[in-house]
Amino acid sequence: MQSAIGFDNSYARLPERFYARLNPKPVRQPQLIKLNEALGEELGLDVSYLRSDDGLAILAGNSNFEGSDPLAMAYAGQQFGNWVPQLGDGRALLLGEVIDVNGVRRDIQLKGSGPTPFSRMGDGRAWLGPVLREYVVSEAMAALGVPTTRALAAVSTGEPVVREEVLPGAILTRVSKAHIRVGTFQYFAARRDDEGLRQLADYAIDRLYRDQMDAENPYLGLLNCVIEAQAKLVAKWMNIGFIHGVMNTDNVSIAGETIDYGPCAFMDEFHPDRVFSSIDQQGRYAYSNQPRIAHWNLVQFAQSLLPLLGPDEKRAVEQAQLAINAFPGLYQNAYQSGFNAKLGLAEAKQGDAELGNDLLALLADQKVDFTLAFRQLGHEDLSNFKEHFEDQNAVSAWLVRWRERLDSENASLGQCRLLMQSANPALIPRNHRIEQAIAAALEDNLEPFHRLCSGLEQPYQDPVGESDLTLPPQPKEVVPHTFCGT
Ligand code: AMP
Ligand code: MG
Hints:
By secondary structure, this protein is of the alpha+beta class. Among the domains are: 11-176, no CATH class; 336-423, no CATH class. It contains 17 helices and 12 strands. Strand 6 (92-99) and strand 7 (105-111) form a beta hairpin. The longest helix has 23 residues, at 218-240. Magnesium ion binds next to loops.
């Protein structure tokens, strides 16, 4: 056991019906795959201890941090629109909370640590593939400047996990500003447990939105904050071509972080209807549906908060409706200012949305790689950008309009290009590279995984020399579908 870490487990002090207390289930032969030292230091943890055998035992669930108080959180949620009154951490355990070096309270959670009372039919485990995928993508998102849960460590368990085939087991250590979901609120609201709902809301406000404590109606304040955080978050996803894949209400964080990396993926060729998840046959969570779905999820959140908004039910509904109605505008503003930056535009002007949409239509029509095209649009020499398009007239006509719009900015072309470089990543965790890294890991070769992780650390900088990590897949490398990690 380690003595130096200051755990302070506020969630464990909430009433017992909020969770189930239990220890992780030990695994046979854990091995460290990767430790995120920078994050460990940010959390104030002793990184060399985490690297030791004792540290590994903790990251594998074979022993506990001193001061931790492991528990599985209860929550509910709508999965693909279908109400499930009880979900909960079926394969995760919140070990506890630490205050990081910036004074921010952070959850430390094991994912894949064995069955819990919320496991339903599941085994409580994760296999190596989704653990590596979540590690790569969540850390890439953080580097890209997108709010997200983080990955502190990945370990292999030395135990098999049975899915459609037998696969090696693994555990991810996930870090979050708080693992509170829309579905956590729904859990209490559906039970008409107003007292529990209020305690949860007070907890969330105290932990995440302290400014609202003094607001006239702190619960309405909480609703507004969560709406704004989601609007900004999903706008960022849209601006970098990220498709979450399972935007169920249990996978929507009150803290405004991207959470639950399942069948998520970044688009290569742009198409608004793009879907990766093999189980999303209706395209409910398609790229261009994400803002609409976020809005729908927030309606569910607002509904769960109604009992707290005030004694007058009609008035509560009106207030919630008003708050919800702000979402499209908040989203659009965040999206458009992000998109303008992609075009090198620091100001907002009439016609910007049309200019952006026309480029996207061209990209979709000509099957152009989203990330590469925007990165190259920021180059002085546009020949690489233009090469992507078969219809040269169309792209030239668009470029003339864009140049005119750039000329109307109060900035030099050089400044516009700098803005573009900070908004258009050179590197994203491309799906084929992730799949290749997972395939190699299954052959005991972790080198591609490590290379991918380090290659994605500075996504807005062009890599030194040629790097295959910037490139879209060759036709034979394309990964059309992703699968849930369960
Ligand atoms: P997800 O699709 O990862 O958001 O998970 C949805 C629900 O299923 C959550 O309650 C999870 O805890 C649970 N779950 C997913 N995979 C497993 C598993 N292998 N064992 C037990 N529960 C699981
Ligand atoms: Mg989930």
